[in-house]
Every structure is written in structure tokens, then in C-alpha cells.
Batch of 4 targets.
Target 1
Amino acid sequence: MPDAVALTWRQYRLERRMFWRNPSAAFFNFVLPLLFLVGGGAILSGNQDDLDKLVPAIAGMSVMSTTFTALAYNIVFLRERGVLKRIRGTPLPTGSYFGGVAANAVTNTALQIAIVVLAGRLFFGIGWPVHWGELVVFVLVGVVSFAALGVSFAHAIPNFESTAAYVNAVFLPVVFVSFYAFDTASAPAFVRGVADALPLKPLIEGLSGAIVTGSSLASNLGALAVIAGWGVVGGWLAVRGFSWEGRRG
Amino acid sequence: MRGIDLTVRRGEVFGLLGPNGAGKTTTVEILEGYRARTGGEVSVLGYDPAKRQIELRKRIGIVLQSGGIYSHVTPREALEHWASFYPRPRDVEEVLRLSGLEAKADARARTLSGGQLRRLDFALALVGDPELIFLDEPTTGFDPAARRDAWETVRNLREGGKTILLTTHYLDEAQALADRVAIVKDGRVLAVGPPRELMAHPPAHTPGAARYTVAYRGANGERVERQTEDPTWLLNELTNAALEKGERLEELSVGRPTLEDVYLELTADA
């Protein structure tokens, strides 16, 4: 067992190194959500109600982009390039491999949440998070669920060239619907229904409670259940449909 | 696959030969643990590869036909990482030197040429010091010099007591490297044996394969080629006739049957 732990750590360190060496991955994972934060903050500055919604919304989006988007990209790339197949032929335990990959994604999420929380404190007139524990719980459940969904979504993407199209076809509509329903209480019932059933808006609500409004974990259990439900479905699909090799021909 | 019954002995280089689609890669992938077999028994170093035990994978090395690597990793980092998977890895610097990657040890993988990436494939498969090595079409796309280097690597591994299972569709490669070969087609084994023996005593249903080719240019300048099972007798007859007439047998050559002849006879569509 210590062997497997040591190998997980080594895999994690390799993943970190590869992440920072890939400028476009670093950009899409870090810079883009921060640009949204800065841009949105500039437009909404002076309206504290709007800023109070912007910060948790960007935090939720950061969780999704560092896990769902990043993992779908990575796994399709490694699968189509034959890296996964090569790794599968070595004695590296499968758990150590995915442990390292997942820890890498979680590190990115944690860094981003830290930046967003810090920016909220310093620039957007929002204090430190009201409930740190609630923040940790929502981020953790969000990370696990969106990571599982990212891995299972990779299975639907046939080749690396089409990854951006597939990922954005899911990521952008989910972000728009969730942001809209979260921001506008008067959004049409249908839109609210869709947003409440998807995992991003419940995550944003939980983060909003933890960071801004102080609504307790107990009052957000419904939201947590929706995210966890997606996680269970995503986890099942991720394991069941996982492919170590690109399709031939 | 229709039933392949083969035994590879410890310490030998075993060649799996056959046309594209013959079932070579399928066979090897079952042995490597990538594919589940639908029937039959398979034992690799005493393990069932389908169970994918880590203990087995510590003792085998795999050079895939097309295995990729992280774009931004350097050969040295990749080898150090891979070495950490194995209980008794080889020295990374030594592997870099032996695989001819010293000059590129700290370059990003995406800047390596196709030949250098193939060397890295070999290096990654060997860094764990495995006892059994799978080489799936290891020299496809190589230039002649790189091919010779790869052959040299295989010979050195064999001298070091390693067992090697090689698939190839290059007959000269099998003839040059393999202690024994199996010729497969349509998921069936057509012949097994040392290349020399297959050439000397080809399977009964390949009558054309055993013939020597005697070629020369006759007195009238015409090129003549004759097939025989016994070149001694034919040469005697030809040289006697030429001496009697005071002629020369220009460009006289005797071609031995090659593995290619046996192979082509065996795999020809009836």
C-alpha cells in the first residue's frame, strides 16, 4: 500500500509539471474564469447585489472548468495519443494513476477557489466566507461530481479534434442557463426547472450560501443532493464506459 | 482468431509473422493483457494476463505499435517516472545512453523526431529491466540505419537472457533476429520453427519454397533462371556444358530459398 501511495504522489507531481508546461491548458483553466471575474466585476462595480452573485457564480464555474472541462480534454488527448494504453501496460496501479490525475484537478480547483474568494474579499466588498465548512463541503462534492462527469463525457468524444466542440456544447449552455436562473428570480419556470436539475446552479447556490449570504448547509441539502446525484450517475458512467484506447480505423 | 497454439521458450526471440489482419496484434494484445480472450488457455510467465496482476506487469516490457507520450515531458523525466513503477529498474542515464537519446534527454517529447520517439518507446519498455519483452512491429517506418540499431538492441537483449516476442511483417527482420518463427494467417498458425529449418524443410504443402534459384547469363546474352531442389547436380551439369563449349557462365549465382519464399507460398491465397 505505501507503494501505491508513493506512486500516486509521483503521478500527481508529473501531472502538475505537465499542466504548467502547457500554456493553453493553464490559460483555459486559470485565466479565463479570472477574466470573467475581472470583466464582470468592472461592469457591475458599484452594485453590491450583483457582485454578491458574481463571485459565487464564478466560483461554481471554476469548479466546472477545472474538473469537467479539463478532464474531458485531458483524457481524450491521452487516449487518442496512446498514452493511456501505454500506462495500462505498466505496473502503475490504476488507482494511483487516477489518484494522481484527480489530485491534479483538485489542486487547480482549490487554487481557483482561493483566488476567487480572495478577490471577493479584496475587490468586491465581500467579506471572508461566512461558513468555511460549508464551502469545503460544496467544493468537494462539486469536484467529485464534475470530475466524474468529465471522465464519462470523454467517452462520448470520438477524437481529439472535436473535443473543443463537444465540451463547449455542454459547458457554455450549462453556464448560461445556470447563471441566468441564479441571477434572475423572474426567469421562466421552465428555465429554472432545467437549471435546478443540472448540477451547476445548485453548486452556485451552495457556494453563495457559504461565501456570501450565510444560509446554512442544512438549508442547502437539496442542492447538495442534486450535485451528488449527478456524481453518482457520472461515476457509474465513468467507470463503466471507460476506454483506454482510441477507436481504431 | 481460430486457435493459436504456441509456446515461447525462455531466452529466445520468437517471431510472429503474417500479413496485415492475420491476427498478430490480437494475439500479442491477449498476451499483454489488453484484450480478453474468448476461449482457450494463456499463460505468461505463469500468470493469466487477463487478470492483469501487477506482479506480471513488473516483469514484462511492451513496445506498442503506436504508443504516445505526454507532449511536454522530457525523455529523462519520462524514464525516471517509468522506472519508479518497477522493483529493480535500470539506471536511467544508462538507458538514455543505450537508446541513443542522450542528446535529447532534456528536450520536450513533442520536439523529438519519429525515430527518436521510437527509441523512447524502446527505452520506456526496457527501463524496468523486464524479463519478457513484447515488440509489436518495432521497426516499421525506420530508415535502414535505425533498423540496424534496433536489431542490435534486440540481439543485446537476447544475449542478456531476455525473452522476446516480436511481431513483424518484414521477413528479413524475422530471419535476422528470431530463433523461431510462427507464420500466422486468418488467425491460424501455418508453420512454426527456426527460420533456417523452415527454409530447409518447408511444410509439405509448399513445394515451391525449397528450391534454389540458379541464374546466369548464357552465351547469347540472355538471362537464364532455373529452379532446383539440388543445386549441386545442376551446377555440375551447367559448368560441364560450358567448359566443353569453351563458354563462360556470366553472372552465375545460386539463390538459397529464403523465409520469404516459404512465407509467400504459405500465405498465398489458394
Target 2
Amino acid sequence: MNSNTYILFPSHSDGLALEKKLKEESIKYTISPTPRSLSECCGISIMISPEICHTVESIIKENRDIRISGIHTIERKSRDWFK
Amino acid sequence: MADYRELWESLDMDLEKHDELCQVLPEFYGDIYMTQEKRPEGMNYFNFVISEIHGLRIKELNEHRKNGKKVFGSFCVFVPDEVILAADGIGVGLCGGSEFWVPDGEKVLPRNMCPLIKASVGAKISGTCPYFQSADMLVGETTCDGKKKAWEILEDYIPMHVMDLPQMKREKDKENFKDEIKIFKEKVEEVTGNKVSAESLKETIKLVNNKRKTLQRLYNTRKAENLPISGKDALLITQVAFYDDTNRFIDKVNELCDELENRIEEKVSVFKEGTPRILLTGTPMAIPNWKMHHLIETSGGAVVCEEACTGTKYFERLVDEDNEDLDSQLRALSERYMGINCACFSPNDGRIDDIIRLYKEYNADGVIYNSLPFCHTYAIEYKKVKDALEKEGIPVIMIETDYSLQDAGQINTRLEAFFEMINMNKELAI
């Protein structure tokens, strides 16, 4: 299954704090709008490959000041809006 | 997740209807933007801006207003941001680029008019755009008949100020526009309660020039043989320029440019070799109108430059910074803004010169003339542009399309034929 892991945050500043850590550790990530299926609130999440989920989880554990509101792995879907 | 519902409610928004928009936007952006390969890492900031498009920036505008400051919404590259910033105000671009707002616009406007106007008016009257809801005043201009009359409808919903933009470029017109900027300055002073001084205007002229220089730096990277960034991403950055915090925007785009310039040195390209390079010219593309770029870049082309309001018209040429008194500063502002070659002017030969110059500067292979339906000035101007380009041997096609998704198949077919013709020309030239 082709999937992505999304890390959700209670506020954008937590997301940016984790982004900083991931950048320092040279971990590949993408800032992403939170998929609607995961939350009804607009805002950012951080998308990573499911393979590195453990590494990122341990970074989150080490940095207790970074609050997250969930980690979810979902199937990657895309549709062609112009067809 | 940050919950912005309370904030939206305080802005008197239609939460239920706004939620319909929230249901679509993340997926739409994800499918159009995040499926691109080899995107620069610096685009993460713009992913952030789009993810927080109705959140963080709105919160910032709200905090600004809580401190007694004002927000001005505008629709056009002729409204001088320098003046708003000099009075400690914030200017935000408000054009509507989504089909979502069109039906609400059609409740008060005729159906046979440009989708940009219908969407902009629809966004306000439906109460689903937090930017409109955060503005203390809207600033319109007289660039076309549709907008000019739409302001008369909008003023029933929100205070409006309309700038009279001359339709010719004689000396007296530049003088008139200088007067218009002065009248606008007085209006901004009245609304904000802050005087615009020569000192503050000098500062903000420099600041907005820096923003222009940053965008010029970005666009310069698109002149490279190996394109370090897609046209779609570059368009997004220009669109974001209209409402992001100016200093933060400058910093983030410069960071991205460092990365892009490295990519050029390392010959990294987001397109495969030989992809036809397209100069797009025509009407503005407001967020989230990414349609033409998406269709071009998924049909085998690459957009290397936009000769449009959401493109070179926004940032080419700087305002002269070496003026110490208000009168000379207003004259310098008028000089710069009246140098924009918008199709509202008659004659507008400068635009033809711009298109040919940009075609050469960006090493383009063809020109796509893009017009929104019912935009008379741009549609009529195609004849002169086409004649001039044909004389130069530059391939050009005109594509007229609105925000809807239905005509994509037909446009794809035309684009593929156009790119095939360009590739054949290239082969014959070898």
C-alpha cells in the first residue's frame, strides 16, 4: 500500500518547532495541509514516509515541549480534478 | 489542530458554507501541488501558508486590528501598498480565483461577465472569505467596466474607496494618477488616524522595492536552462506575495532562491530535458486558480514566466527611492505604477514590447495567451499581440477559459498539439 504518515499538532507553532528539529536531523519531511479525513480543522501537519515514523516518534519523545495531537498513516490517494 | 472557528465566527462568517470550502481546498492543493516531483524544500513555507491560509494570517490580521490598526483589501496591482504600509496599515490582495464563489456573485451580477469579478463579489456577499471579512476598507480602481460597476454593489456591504486609473499614458495622465495617489493617501490617513510622512513613505518605498527585487531574483532562476522550480510553484509564490507579511515573505523567498541558485549550479531540473518553455501572458490568476499552469505542466510544457498581474506586472521596475519630500515621492510612485502595461490602457504597445522581451529573456519556445471569459480588454488586445509575435516568428495560441474544470480535456488537446508543433520546429531548426 502506498501511504503517507501525517503528524498533527494543536497549533502551527508546534508544527514549526518539529520542522526545525527534523531539518537539524536532515530528515525528509513535507509540510502539508491536514487531510480532511484526519481533522475538520484547517491547518498544517507534517507528512513523512511511514518508514521513518519510528525515528520521528523518538524525536518527538525527546522534545517534550513539542505537542502533537496525533500520528496517522493513511493511503495516498490523488484524483485528477480536471478530468 | 488549531481551532479557528471562534475567530471566523467573530468575523461574521457563514461557518457552514465556509466549511464546504475547507472540505475541498486541502485535497485540491495536495493533488495539484504535492504530487509534483523534485519540489524545492523551500516550498515547504508555501505549503505552510496555504495550509494556514484561513488560519494564521487571519489571526495576524485580527491581532493587528485589535491594536487599533487597519486592513485594506485591494484587487489590483495599481493600488500602491507603499502608502498603506506607511500609515501602519496592512494591504491584502482579494481577487477571487475559485468557482466556489461564482454562484453567489451571480446573485447580484450579470452571468455574462468575468469570473474574477463574480468570484470576488461572491466571496464577500457569501461571507466565506475571512480576508474580505478582515478588511476595514476595500480599495477598487477603474481598470475595467465590470470592476468599476461592481464596486457600486460592494459598497453596500463594506466601505469602499475607488482610485480613478487613467486609461491613457500621456503626461497629464501620470499627473492625474499622482493626484489619485494623494487622494488615496488622505483616505488612508483618515481611516488609520496616522499621518503618512516623507520619512515613513521613504521606508516603505524601500521595503516594497525589496519585495520586488526578491521576486525578480526568483524569476531570474527561471531563465536557467535547467528549470529549478516549476511554473506552478512560482505562480503560487507570486499569489502569496499579495497578502503575506512583507518582511517574512522577503526572507522566505530569499531562502528559497539560495536553494534554487544551488540547483542551477548543480544542473537540477524539475522538468525533463527538451520540455517546451512557455511564456504565459494575459489576465490575472488569483488563488486558487492554478488551472492553466497545471494543464500546461501536465501536458508536456513548462511555464517559465507570467506576463500578468500575478507575474512580471507586479514586480518589474522599482520606485525611485531618492526622494525626500512627499510631492516627489508621489510623483515617483505614479511613474512606476503608470509604467505597468495593463490592457486597460489605449494604446498599449508597451505590453507587446514586454512580451517579446520576456520571451527572449526567459528563452521561451512559445507564448500562451490566456484570457478569462468576458475580459474585453485582454481578449481584444490578442489581435495586436498575435500579429506582432507572428512577425517575430514566435508561436502563440490563445486559450480563453474560466475557473470551471469541464473544458480541461479540450484544452489539453490544444496544448499537446501546440507543444508538438514547437518540438517539430526545434527539430527542423537543428
Target 3
Amino acid sequence: MKTALVIVFAVILTVPLLAFAGPPIDGIYTSTDLGGQVLLGRYSESWDVPDGRLQMGNTVNKLSWDGATLGTQWQLFCTRIGGPPVLITDTVDGNGNGFREWRVVYVAGDLVLDGNGPWGDGSEAFYNANLHAYQEIKTFQYVNNQIVQCISNVSLQAAFQGWDESCVTISILNQEELGSTNTASLPADYPPFLVPITCDPTRTLGSWGEVDEITLIVSGCTVPTEETTWGIIKSRYE
Amino acid sequence: MKTVMSFFAFVAAACLLAASAQAGAPLVGTYTSEGGQVSHGRHTESFANDGDFLTVGNAINAASWDGATLGVQWSYSCPDIMSTMLLADLVNPVTGDGQKIYKKTFSGGTFTMNGAGEAWDGGDATYTGVMNYYSETTTIIYSNFERVNAVTDITWSGYFNGPSYPCVQWAANGATLGDTSDGSMLPAGFPPFVNPMDCSTGRTHGIWWQDSDVTMTIFNCPVPVDESTWGGIKALYQ
């Protein structure tokens, strides 16, 4: 009888702890190049056709990179261009020299944060958030009508699944293109090209690069102390 | 006859001088920080008063940073903000969390680049030039209506000082590191705040950034023919 009571008591104590284990911790997190703990990353953006930049359906796959392994701390994948990009700057002259900037809005996609990352207490394996806003300002540098570089500002907003609806994350980051299938093959250790919607890693065309200068904010996730739970326990054994 | 001989001697000398000067021009090519040819950097944006982020008259002062010393490889200064335009407002009006994206246009500016030993070394110890375009597209992240951080795409172009010297284009990413608006002081190791127009130091308010992902392209470009020079030469010997 005594043993049974101890077991019941232990279970009652443990269940609330599990129930309140681990929403992501509210805070501001920055990448290592800004003095923080968030890993830098690598990305790919798949195309459906050769030289298919800025096309609807192009699909992003970004993964953290610790120097050896992709995706151990964060993954942002399967957001795709959802409408025609908007040209916001065009300084390319008659000789084909200058810059073009595009605002590109994407749809769908997920952000997964490792539960042991700086936003986690280790009680959850990971946190999954659905993207509800993602866009890039893409800047192309042209010389003689050839693209010599593409850099981007990225902004995103996402809502964590399984937690209060106020539990969200927003982020900004930079990225730099390092290559494309126009001139080379996707190197090893870069995220594979994804098919839109299904997210299968079977596309073969696209571009790739690095992700840096990340600022990520988690907010609205703090769980208030549930005093009634302890009150119930106490009342049962008084 | 003597006059004619002198004229041809002068022209020959002028051609030799021009050829000599051309030999010192920076070498055409694309140079990147990723490839190790161009250093990352740091820049400041001065304010007239704290809180004047995005304000007309803010002045840029940028320099390469090798981890110990500013400006060893490159520097540029005094593009001044002429206008700012809000491209997107993604801030939640209730929580104050989200991003805003701005386009900033500038005017003015000069640049200096080390020559000796650099990948673009064409013979001159130092190269100087004039910026004829400078622009930033800046994405700012807010939490509870407070600016937390910002990333920016920097693009500029210009021409090197020198007869028939080439043009240059520059694209880089940036991220904020600090701001006097919160009471912080500009740390050592950053370019000083400068006044717009005359580029003198002395301003004490502003924001400081780190610059990364640099791609610099030096390319041949049409140079306006200075007809008065040849007219002057002809006039001397007519």
C-alpha cells in the first residue's frame, strides 16, 4: 500500500513537470559572427529550369553548419517563391554594368530549432514553427550583363506549434551566393535542392551559399507558474 | 618644320606618359572576401543627434578591418543619406514585433585602396577614386516597438582617379553592432563618426556596423573624352 502511494505521488509530481517542460525561452539570439551562440548556416535555392532565378516555386533550404554537419541546431526549409518578384532598384546601364534589387516574397515553409540550442532548456528535442512570413531583398551585381554576385537580406516570422499562439519567433539574416548550377554542381555539405510543396530533395538545379549575421527573437512563449497544480497536490495529501 | 617636330615629340611623350600611367591602373577582375582577396570591414553612420537612424545627412565612414587595424586595404567615406523610403512594414501593430525594410539613397563619397601586393595591384602603391552611386537596403528587426538590430545590403560604384583607369562596383552585407542612442560609446577599432559634406570628424552620435560578404569588381568602362585637352595641345602648336 505504501509503495503504491509512493508511486502515485511520484507520478502526480512528474506529470505536471512533463506538461510544462520546455517551450522555447524568450530572448534575443545572435549568430557567432555577432558574438552570440547561433550557428551560421548554408543554403540552397532550387530552380525548376536552368538559370531559373526569381521564378515562382523556387524553394529554399537553409541549415545550420557547425563546420562538419548540417542542420544540428536549426533548419529552415521548403519556403518557396509565391508570387512575381518586384524590382525595386535597377542601375544597370547600357554596358550591362550596375545593380538590380528585387523584393521576393515566399510562402509556406518550416523553421525547426534544436531543443538544446540557446533557446531551449533541453526538455524538448526540437521546436517546430510554421513560417507565416518570409521575404528576401536580393541584390544582383552585373558586369557586362553577367551576374557576378548575389547577396540578400532575409526576414522571417513564424509561429511555434504546440504552444500558445503568442509563442512566435522573428528573425533577420544575411546571405551570400557562392555558386549555381549555371557553372558548377552543388558541392557536398550544402543543403540539397528541394521540390516545392513535397519538399523532396530531388531537384537538381539551383544556387547555394552561406548564411550569416543572424538575429533571432523568441517571444510570447514564457509559461506562467501553475500554482493550482501544487495546490491540488497538497490538498490531496493534507 | 621645327614646330612640327616638336609637336610630334610632345605627342610621343604624352603617349609614353599615358602608357606609363596605364601600367599602374588597377587590374580588372572580380575580387571577393570569400576568396580571400578583399578584407571584411567596419563602418559607422553618423547622426546629428541620437535616434537619427535613417535621417537625411547621416554620413558613412568605412574601412577594412584585418582584426587589428582599420583601413590597411580599403576605405571609403562620406556618402551622405539623401532620402529614405519604407519598402515594407512587417511589424505587428499590437506586439511591436517584426521587421521594416528601408531603401536609403546617398550622394557623394570617395574611396582609397591599397595597391601594392593586392590582387588588383597594377603598379600604383595606392589608388583613389570617386563614388558616383551608393545605396543601402536595410532590414530592421523590432521587439516591442524597439529596434533590436539591422542587416543591410550595401552597393556602390565609382571610378578610379587616373587616365583611362577603370571603374569599380562593390556589394557587401552589413549588420549593426551598436548605437549611441542607448548610451553606448563608439568602441575603439571603428571608423570615427564624420560630418556630412566636408567629411571632418567630430560628430559623436551614430551607429556602427560590421561589413562582410564583399564582392568588388574592377572593370573597364567608357571614360568621357576630354576634348579640351587635345584642343589645348593643338592650339599650342598651331
Target 4
Amino acid sequence: MTTGKDRVMGMNRTSMCKWFVPAVAFVIGLVVAAAELGSNASPWQAAVAFVIVAGYALGLRLLQSRSETASLLSGLPVDERWESINNRALALAAEAIAIFLLAVFVVTEFGGGDAMPYAMSIAAFGVAYLGGILWYRWRL
Amino acid sequence: MSEVRRATGERGLVVTAAKVAVTVVVMLVWHAFFLFAMIVMSLVALRALMPRSETVSLLLGAPVDERWESISTRAWALGGQVVFVGLLAALVAMQVWQVQGWSGDPTPYALVGAALATAYLGAVLWYRWRQ
């Protein structure tokens, strides 16, 4: 049986979830702007960097209740169909990026550039994917 | 006499340079061959294990049923999310390192992060239209 206290806690949790992505984007925006300022960028350039990141998140928050897509992009899919869309989209993007990373790694290696960032990204991808298989194999 | 010695010395240099070049080429070819052999052997081993293991079957791109298809989709999704968070962290770390005056180029991380975000947004629109 759901009590009034449970309902209030549930509402608080939902509103916290709604503000989670904007809050994270706000912090990332601040860090990026601080780094821009530190690397001899003008305050104007730092402000633009902050506004791009924070503005995107704030825009999503404002559109959350009106658009299912915005709600999904904020990490709150409205129903099972949107959860399925999210999972498939993430999987498709991950597969595309894995191929892209491999191609860029090979091209950079041949070109004599620094391929380490791509190699590390591929390694992280491989570990996360294999870990994901083991985790979901155990959980599902 | 000295001309003969100089000619012998020059020939020695040429022979040494040729030996070094051949050694480097052989090492590179051997290294490439070794890597190629490792990849082929691991694929052959996985193929041999395929009928016995559902996990190996998935790793070779042939999930045995719907449960394993779901595991594959979720594992890819998890991998994508982990890499995206890692890329963001690396991007911010490189920016901060640049501030500190250490070496490090954030551009590769920014490019791959942007490509991943674009691919995700495109896929959301695609599946929204298709489902």
C-alpha cells in the first residue's frame, strides 16, 4: 500500500531525476569554461563554451514535459517504446563508433600520428562491451 | 692506400645501413604477421567454440535467441555510454592538463565524443520514425 509519504518521496525522486542532466551539464560547462579561461581564451569565448553546454541542458529541461524526444535525451524515457528506442539507438551509435574508431586508429597509425587516444578508446569499448555481456548474461 | 681504406670504409657504411634497413623491415613484417596471426587464431578458436558456447556465438555476431539479442543490444548500449562518459572525462582532463602546461591534445576525444553524440541523435530520430 502506497502512503502519502511514499508518494512525496517518489515525487521528490522524479524531480531530482529531472534536474540531474541539467545539473551535470552545468558543472561540465563550468569546468570547460574554466579550462578555456586557463588556456588563454578570452572571457567571451569561455562564456560561449559554458552557454552551449548549459543552454542545451536547460533547453532539454524546458522541453521535457512537451516532447518525448527531449524527455528521452534527458535520460527519462516516457514509456517502454521510448526505452526500446533509447537502447537500440545507443547500441547502433556504439557499433558505428566502434567501426569509426578502428578506421581512425588504422589511418592514424599509417599516417604516423598519435593513435594512442583511439587505441585507448577502443580498449575501453571492448572492456565495457565484454563486461556488459557478462553482466546482462548474469542478470537477464 | 688511404683511398682504398676510405672506399672500404664507405662500403662498410653502406653494408651496415642496408643490414639495419633489412632488419627493420623484417621486424616490421614479422610484427605485423604476428599480430595478424594472433587475430586469425583467436577468431578460429572462437569459431571452434561457437556450437558449445552461447557467449562465443554472440561474440561472433550470431546470438542464438531473443534473450541473447537483448543481451547484445544492452551490452552495446552500455559500452557506448561508458565510452561517452570516458571521452568526456578525458576531454575535460586534457583541457585541465593544458591549463597546467602539460602536454596533451583534447581534439581526438572531442571529435570522437561529437561523432558518438551525432550517431546517437541520428539513431534516436531514425528509430522514432521507424518504430
